[in-house]
Amino acid sequence: MTVHAPSRPAASRDGDRPPGRPPLILVLPALAGLAFLVLPLAGLLVRAPWSTLGTRLVRPEVLDALRLSLLTATIATVLCVLFGVPLAWTLARVRFPGVRLVRALVTVPLVLPPVVGGVALLLAAGRRGIVGGPLESAFGITLPFTTAGVVLAQAFVAMPFLVISVEGALRAADLRYEEAAATLGASRWTTFRRVTLPLVAPGVAAGAVLCWARALGEFGATITFAGNFPGETQTMPLAVYLALETDPQAAIVLSLVLLAVSVVVLAALRNRWTGAS
Amino acid sequence: MFKRIAAAAALLAALAGCGEVDGASGDGGGETLTVFAAASLTETFTELGKTFEESHPGTDVRFGFAGSSTLAQQITQGAPADVFASASPATMKTVTDAGDAAGEPRVFTTNRLVIAVPKDDPGGVRSVRDLAGEDLRVVVCAEQVPCGAAAAKALAAAGVTVEPVSKEKDVKAVLTKVRLGEADAGLVYRTDAKAAGGDVTGIEFAAAAEAVNDYPIVRVADAPRPGLAKEFIDLVTGPRGRAVLGAAGFRAP
Asked: Is the CB of A230 less than 8 angstroms away from the CB of B167?
């Protein structure tokens, strides 16, 4: 397996960089910073049990965890797009009192330790939670210890990435197109659908990819809220954690898979969207 | 510009300061003893740590409480611990096998599993047989950690097949799920059920005797404070340690 780092030659695209040699006082700390970020990943690659990689990867429990991770992260991302895009639009386009507070609240999961997010989810959506209690007594639906609970935990931590990305795109978009559509008689919904959404589509796509990658890596909220059961709630990061307890080699292999997926996703993201801006 | 440099310098100084506190040096000539202990020892060792600090003025006892297997991995990866107290000989073995233990580990106490149920007992659990119930939400530790290995052994000895809804990463996580009422029952150490006070009820079961956990303690090779480490182990294995552990529900080895 080869992994391509998301780097590109300095002069390939950016013709607008100033000429001259970069000063050493900037280059040295830059290299140190780069090494700090890359060395742990190199450690993973160096210590990986390459000879047994293939057989370890096709173990049923590994495939189970991978399948579950891909499925839940994808559903979580779809949910985040469905609810996050309207939320981002509201934050960017609607004036209402307390908009700053709402914006701050939306980004809280970004800085909240995921395990705290998991506790909060338990207290809200657990069977004795403010939402979960009524949900169970009325419909018999319980979320902890279910795959749906995994999706919920992932969506909770990943949605801010989407909202921030889409809101940024909305703010950067030229309002005159929307105003022109409005003067031509389009309703706000039509304007959103036919003008705004196509304008910010790259932002939505970039946000969705980030959101997916974050959901894929979610650990703390998942194990706290959804628990850990193979095939039901044990995603890849949870499998990595428990493999590390007894079989570090297996944990390295699982980590490599997650690393590869993340790098591929981010590299694609960089070339397709953010690199173009 | 100068402001920025000053700010950066302050930040660096703060970071350097953090590093020092985190390291073994401590402040003002005092010494820091680092003890890695199984999550189930949280309450008792915290108390013993206070006793130790009182009898060793200027010394700080710093604890790392987590699943024994996590701690064992951290020690074999070079974590700067002085003492390691594990919830099972098997986990201790990974440390001794790696050559990271100074001398022979000593078993200082034992623990056994009980069935923990929430105070209001929504599942109506009376015995280990009830755990096989269809609609009962049972939570256990993952087999990779000592409490999970013990749970599997005890359930096998009881001849009960249980379909848990989750296999948690350590015993405290199981207890939390029971405490919050998310699980109808969980297998935890009797000391954990006791530590949860009135939140959970612990139900003893005979088959738990087949899976008694021995807790070994050892000084870590290359311990930054070998002298203090030895004294702490003496405290734990001595009369004071036995009294504190006994009060929490541990039994003598």
From this structure: yes
